[in-house]
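pasting for the record
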Amino acid sequence: MFGKIPAKWMVVVSVLLGSFTMILNNSMLNPAVPQLMKVFEADAIAIGWVVTIFMVTMGMTMPLTGFLGDRFGKKRVYLIGLALFIAGSVLGSLSWNLSSLIAFRALQGIGGGIMMPLSMALIFEAFPRQERGLATGIWGVAAMVAPAIGPTLGGFIIETTSWHYLFWCNVPVGLAGLIIAYFYLPKTMINNQIKLDRWGFLFVTLGVGAILLTFGRMSELSHLVALPNLLLFAFGSFCLYVFVQIEKRVEQPLLDLTLFRVPAYTLSIWVSGVASIGLFAGVFLIPLLIQQVFHYGAIMTGLVFLPSALLSGIFMSIGGRTLDRRGVSGVLTSGMVIAAAGTLALGLMNLETTLFFIFAMMAIRGIGIGFTMMPATTVGMNAIPEPTISRGSALTNVLRQMSSALGIVFISIYYEVRRGQVSAATGSLEAASLQAINEGFLIIGVLTALTIPAAYLLEKKSKIDEASGIKKASGH
């Protein structure tokens, strides 16, 4: 069946199936929250743990994947991660109470935390430097399309069948990904000399876990000043500070923080992080706009996301191909300009705004994010020495996970606070919701616009840092 597909492209197919299944499942669960509240007779805060625990355990696992991939082989560890995710899906569908469901979601998160950084590392190992843009662009389609179709598919499953199928539907695709990965992922080098940075692992796990948990507990203004959240955030920040001090001194660091000395890598973290914040802010705001302001259903919400997802996937591939053929020049800057324009335009809506306008602006945003997110990550990863790819991928994914969570927390709290203020002043909840959504898009649009110079600098720095990365790699 796959005989005519080059082996390196089978690597992309393998990791794309796994990544798509994992991201799709997570986005499908959001519309299921009201149903799960009824099934388990729990409030929204308790059910919120079903979503939060996945984000937390995924973020806590990611820092370890660079070490695991180098020590035991990327293929073996990736297969274990995907198998854990599938096992968590099967067990999740068999959950007998809320505690068991949360535990199995945590298992899914551990599997996802292993898979995501290694997916990128496996692609980088399979493709030469000049072909990675297109490969990562095609793989990145999973990250764009899955969040767009997930809520609609999840809503359809909830309305027509049972919540159990939210987990069962992962199994066939996951198993297909596991089988293809087993046969087509190449075995990678194993370094038996690597030692685990135990203290670094302890403090980064506690730090990332505590901060992501804090973000997961916040959805309104009062949560920002709640003592447990303040203490949890302070504890997480302290642990990360200790982690940084440990990494400066240890001979074999868990995450190589010296990568931040490579300007292109650092700039790529910033650019892709802002693009990620913009993506997930839209995922949060658009359902509120379509359902609460314009009073359409979940299916229309999904349709609004569809052009954005498709165009982001197409232009992610175009941007990757352009990156491979002509270099990064112009791709990232134009992507940020387009994303900023589409986002700012969504901040100018009124109650007479047509669905066509929303479709069009979401499509423009999709083009901009597609041109920006994966190409920026690829440029940054290309600029670091080849032996550090696993650690660099883990660090990139940890920071992107935290920036996405921060973006959702900020936008959700801003929305609740502003809607309450405007509603009290005007007496119209509909108008208040629209104004809060408009302002949210304007804030994200301004942040995106302010990042355009960083994208331009990344284009300039990338050529210099790529050359130095090659020299460092050859010197190892």
